[in-house]
Please model this.
Amino acid sequence: MLRGIGISRIVASPLVRAARTAEIIADAISVPLTIDAGIIEFDFGSFEGLPVRDLMIKHGVNSATGLVSILPADGENWDAMTERSVRCVSAWLDRHPGDHFLFVCHDAVMQGMANALSGSYFKNSHGTPFRYVRDDAQWRVEQIIT
Model:
């Protein structure tokens, strides 16, 4: 599935599901894997573990922007998470400019980066690989495998 797209390095969140997924892929396509806490999942504070859809209904929001607006103060700051994630990915890209990366992380991280780069969130199918593509000065998110 991912063999033919030219991945040369994988970086993953240290959380078990992401790290294990990355390990399976790295073994299958024989590329190096590094764990990096810079792309660890967002800390939802008192919302941790609660179904997002239920939270959105309870608080009367119907978009990712609305969800971000109701995040509790006892969790991570959304902008700080986005900055940390973009900084992490940028550092890897700067250190290894010839490599083609697969970053295995979490929806909130991907959404924060998508919004920072393209100005919007995207519909994510969990477990489906997406890439961020730059066309001239504009970024977009596209699904790798349909």
Remarks:
- The first strand starts at residue 9 and ends at 12.
